[in-house]
Structures are given as structure tokens and as C-alpha cells.
Amino acid sequence: MSVRHTRSMSRNVCVIGSINVDLVINADRLPLPGETVLGGTFTVHDGGKGANAAVAAARAGGNVSFIGAIGRDEHGERALAALSNEGINVDGIRRDDRNPTGVALVVVGPRGENQITVAPGANGAFELEDVDRERIAAADVVLTNHEMSTRVVADVLRASQAAGVTAILNPAPARALSADLLRLGPILTPNEHELVVAIGNDVTGTALDELAARNTGPIIVTQGPAGALLIRAGERTRFPGHSVPTLVDTTGAGDTFNGVLAAWLAGGAELPEAIEAANAAASLAVGAAGARAGMPTRDSIEKLLAQA
């Protein structure tokens, strides 16, 4: 499949999502329920699906603004500084006086697989305000995810639709998708697990058929190393993945995919081109520990695309 690189003067991406600090243990294996696994190494990383995707979009050349919340604590100050250092506009991040900054506990196994538990903190208390809707209306592409409340996600999608702005919903963590939300027509980017949960059907193929019938926008099913499947207007197009020379940590691969997808679309790319770029970026992202360490620059993404 040919790749066309597109430039735009604005590339404005608005991310409404979670900000967390990730407390990570790299272990020899993942624990079973009720089991304690000794050993491993501990590190602290900046995280949150929203913040991670914003970093990916910024490194991919997007002009990124972020809307969300942190607590008045050290974790929040660390998270804010990390986003600012990536060139992200953080004017839309509010400090919550009652709730702490979100925290994720992450265990990473020897093959890069992971288990994650999140205490949402300020993310869970966040509500959209009029100034946020103005920021959404000024964007080329809006990106959100399920680490925000269902009410906030729906509010973001309604504001995007009202402003005529392309919206991407990464339905992660997995959650059922209501008919009202699907009528708003976002670009949906579930992985295969999120797909079956979204529609309440354990058979992947049938779940995809049902979701495609109900959602008025495109669906991109991400499939890890296998790539991605686009379902749009009754047609299905498969985009192969890229080989991964070294698999270290898959934690931020999905966030990378979504951030780069948003940045490419905001730059004027058509959806197939943006998926190709997002696939390439996700394959590069798994080569380093932590959700953000391996997130590539636009030059690195374009270099890999040129080799395909």
C-alpha cells in the first residue's frame, strides 16, 4: 500500500483524558490471582492513557493541547512538567483540591505483557466546562478514552460533533458502548478484547458486525503485531503490522497508535494513511521500558514507512 505524506499548517490535536503516574515492576512472570511473585525491578514512569497519547501525538508533529485534571501533589507536578517538556499546551489541566493525581500499578512480564490496575483520582472527578468546549472547537482532531467517566466521554463527543471536529474514541479500558454514544459517530479504535466488551458479544467476528452496524463512524480494530483492520461504509481493509526487532514493553503501544493516528489526521492525512503511520509508530514504541520511552518522533515514523 502506497504512503502519501501530507502537511498541514495547523495540526491541532486536543486530547481530553487521564493523567497518571505509573508505578512499574518488571517481573520474571506475571502473578496468578492470590499469588506473590518475588524479585523484579521497580521504576516510576509518567502515564495515563490520555497523557501518553498526547505525548505520542506531539512527537509525531501535532500541536497538542490537553484537557484533564491532576491533584495538588508531587505526582501531579511531575506529570504536568513532563507534558510541558513535550511541548504540550497544559492550560486546560485543572488542579483538583479534593482528589489525588491518578496512579497506575503496572506489572510487566518477560515478553512485554502487562497487568495494570488504576486508581483514577482526579481523572474520575473531572467534568467538562465551557472553556473546554471552546478548546475542542478550535481543534482539527479530538481524542479521548475510557479512563474518563462515561458522562465526560459523551460530552466530549457531543461537543466535537457540534463543532464539526473529527473525534477519536479509544474505548480503553474496555467498557460497553451505548447506542447514544455510537450515534455520535466517533472513529472507534478498540483492540479485540475491547471490541467484544463494547458490544457484549464474546465472538469477535459477530461483535465486529454488530458494532459496525450500530456505529455511524469508522472502526479501527487494533491487533498488535498483526496490524489493524478498518471497517468503514461496509468495507473492510487490513493494514499489516511491522516486525518488532526487540519487544521490551507493550504498555504504551495502544496509546502511541491513537496519538499518532490523531496527529496524522490533524495534518490532513486520509484515514488509511494515518493508520499506516499509527501502525508503524506502535511497532517502534514497544522497544523501550515504560509507556513513553519508546514513542517515536515523526522522522522515525516516516523513515520506517519509507522502508515498507
Structure classification: alpha/beta
- Going by CATH, the homologous superfamily would be Ribokinase
Task: Write down how many β-strands occur, each being a DSSP E stretch of 2 or more residues.
Answer: 13
Strand content: 25-35%
* CA distance, first residue to last residue: 9 Å
Q: What level of helicity do the residues show? A: 25-40%
CATH class categorisation: Alpha Beta
Spell out the helices and strands N to C: EEEHEHEEEHHEHEHEHHEEEHHH
Shape: globular
Oligomer: single chain
CATH architecture descriptor name: 3-Layer(aba) Sandwich
Number of helices, where a helix is a run of at least 4 consecutive DSSP H or I residues? 11
Mean pLDDT: 92
Query: How can the largest sheet be summarized?
Result: 6 strands, parallel
C-alpha-based Rg, rounded: 18 Å
- Count of separate structural domains: 1
Major sheet strand order: 5-4-1-8-9-10
Question: Which fold name corresponds to the CATH topology?
Answer: UDP-N-acetylmuramoyl-L-alanine:D-glutamate ligase
Low-confidence stretches: 1-8
